[in-house]
Amino acid sequence: MIPFVVKRALAAIAALAFTTFSLATAAFAQDYPKRPITMIVPFAAGGTSDVIARTVAEQMGIALGQTIVIENVAGAGGSTALARASRAEPDGYTIAIGNAGTNAATYTIYPKLPFTPESFVPIAMVAKTFGIIALRKDFPAKDLKEFIAYAKANPGKINLGHAGVGSSNYLICKSFVTAAGIDATLVGYRGAAPALTDAVGSQIDGVCDAAASVSQSINEKLVRGLVVGSTVRLATLPELPTSAEAGLPDFEAQGWNGLFAPKGTPPAVIAKLNAAARTAVGTDAVKKRFADLSTVAPDDNEHTPELLQQLVTRDVEKYRKMLADDAKQ
Length: 329
Prior knowledge:
receptor, Tripartite-type tricarboxylate transporter receptor subunit TctC, 329 residues, 2 domains, D-Maltodextrin-Binding Protein, domain 2, 11 helices
């Protein structure tokens, strides 16, 4: 049995240690950031996550008074990048951008990952995205009805590219073929950009992509938009029908992009990053770029770390059910 005097001494030591740690953390956060910050993007340059990351990072850097350097780490549907981010020092100098694919679906598809949802601290949601199915410009079907009829007449012969198993683009593909009731071959790439390049070159039949990265190619008639998984038409693609208008209301593809830090990052640092993210998405520069990309900034009440955590928790369960057959043992 520990004497009362010893207990009081131990308690005092613990309190002093906690106070010292808290003061040190507060001082660190007050001076943060003192050097450039790395933002890890889980896909190749040019894709949706990359474009959004670069747009937001530039303005966040201005708000923080430091440059935010983009590091593209492609592979395994984003899990290679997330593994790298989870091992980073939790000091606020390494953060990552993720989505429902990289930060939710991946736990079902790759059940033996070296990280879990608890390996990350949410910072803020920074964008809401809309999924599109686009076809090579010489594909024989002219609309969604013709495409589904063609796919059913040619099971397994249509190739749709995506940014890798577990990516948000993969989820767009899965949602689409499930809603359409078709058998299509889903081809994974190390990012959305190389998949789109092959669709433009007619190496594959089409892509499952976000409006942020495919809209320009559709407008330039390099590929042909088939349908957008949204409840309203996009301003940048006014002629592209919504899933309901095209006769496939069950196809829903509205996603999110958020920023995450390694577990253990001080709350005061998270607060600084959150404030910078809020400032960034509220700037005219980001609003204009997002508008050009058919991407939407979060509402004022959607910037909190708590809201992003809720999205992750919801989507982990959602895709555990949807992707059970894709789990790799």
